[in-house]
Amino acid sequence: MTKGRVIAIVVGLAVVVVTFVVVLPKIANYGDVWKVLQDLTWPQIGALAAATALNLVTFAPAWMVTLPGLRFWRAFGVTQASTASTYIAPGGAGVGFALSFAVLRTWGFAGSAIALAGTLTSVWNQLALFAFPVVAFGLLGLEQETDPILQSVAVLGLVVFVLGAAAFAGVLWTPRVARFVGEHARRVVNWTLARIRRGPVGWGAESFVRFRNNAIGLLRRRWHLLTLATLAGQLSVFVLFLVSLRVTHVSASQVDWIEAFAAWSLARLLGSIPITPGGIGLVEVGVTTALVGFGGNDARVVAAVLLYRALTIIPTLVIGLAAAATFRPKAKSDVVRAPSA
User: Fold this and answer.
1) What is the dihedral of CA 11, 321, 129, 162, to 10 degrees?
2) Under a CB-based contact definition with an 8 Å cutoff, are residues 243 and 51 in contact?
3) I want to staple 329 with a disulfide (CB 3.0 to 4.6 A). Which of 106, 165, 176, 205 is the partner?
4) Nearest-CA neighbor of 287 among 274, 306, 272, 273?
5) What span, in angstroms and rounded, lies between the C-alpha atoms of 81 and 115?
6) Residues contacting 122, CB < 8 A, separation 6+
7) C-beta separation of 155 from 173 below 8 A
8) What pLDDT does 316 receive?
């Protein structure tokens, strides 16, 4: 293990310890938080279970849209497993995609089709991630309410969204641009690999041109389905967050749905920072601070946040690990080869 990796692990552990041992207990006593959770009724637990199930089933559709031939239960299993791997293995999203790629290849899907699906789902998710704070800030403006932190995040999100969309559109615009980007990407990657005494990559500028052609073909037919699937996958998480607030009696008079959406959009960005797996620690502090700032009761807010985080991480971890343990190659007669887009 490299020195840099050791430092990253130490920093991540420090963030988690400080969050749960120092910061959150100062906001609310854990004994008070436990009392809030003990007061949950069976109908409230049912609402949480329904919201959790909705969140889980919306993992799969985006991959089903971008990888024709992939059916729901296979998509569900591989997305749960890849997400679970990001919670337990160093490397974050890269590890998750590597697992998805390996499993999908055993099921007969072409490597180029898997790479295209992974890229498009990632790009759409990242664009949504940076667009939500902008939307949230606009909604808060309609309520004549401001938040300096969210304002800064919204500005950053807008800049990244515009630049990201422009860069992606640029690659798709003409083969010449795709070839230009591919050539420079190859040089940068090869230079980086040379520093660690690794060989050059096997792809080049023409790989980007082929990617462009395949992406355009797929997006022409399915961009609207991909957009809907991405929004469903993202907003189902917000539904779970809002239900967690309401069942712990963080009422609309304390934190209305717009303020909740603003805090949640901030949490989603914090969760993408690769310091701890799934943003553990960062998300809890960020969203709790925002909700308390909007007027939420300290103990009830902490209870809601911990409940929300448990229900977004633990079910996926359990299902994902179980799915990974049961993956097996299809029989030759059952192999599905997805058509290239």
Assistant:
1) 90
2) yes
3) 106
4) 306
5) 17
6) 93, 97
7) no
8) 94
Q: Do the Cβ atoms of 157 and 133 come closer than 8 Å?
A: yes
Distance (Å, whole) CA 8 – CA 208? 33
- Please give the pLDDT value at position 49: 97
pLDDT at residue number 333: 43
Task: Record the tokens describing residue 29, joined without a space.
Answer: 């006593």
Burial class (CB in 10 A: 0-12, 13-18, 19+), 67: buried
Torsion 214-218-220-223 (CA) sign = negative
CA–CA separation, 172 and 56 (whole Å): 32
Tokens of residue 205, six digits: 């500028």
Report whether 158 contacts 152 (CB < 8 A): no
Place of tokens 């990796």: 5
Q: What does the alpha-carbon distance between residue 222 and residue 81 come to, in Å, rounded to a whole number?
A: 25
pTM: 0.84
| Rounded Cα–Cα distance for residues 86 and 320 (Å) | 10
Task: Reduce the secondary structure of 77-123 to three states and give it as a string.
Answer: HHHHHHHHHHHHCCCCHHHHHHHHHHHHHHCCCCHHHHHHHHHHHHH
Q: How far is CA 198 from CA 4, 191, 193, in A?
A: 19, 10, 5
The single-letter code of the amino acid at 202 is G
The answer for 99, left when phi > 0, alpha when psi is -120 to 50, beta otherwise, is alpha
The mean pLDDT values, 10 residues at a time, for the chain of 341 residues are 69 85 90 94 96 96 94 94 81 75 90 89 88 85 69 72 74 75 74 68 72 86 94 95 96 92 86 78 89 91 95 94 78 46 40
Tell me which DSSP letter residue 250 carries.
Answer: -
**Selection from 304, 292, 301, 302 nearest residue 149 by Cα:** 292
336 burial (CB, 10 Å; 0-12 / 13-18 / 19+) is: middle
How many residues are given for the chain? 341
Q: How is the chain split into domains, by residue range?
A: 28-177+216-326
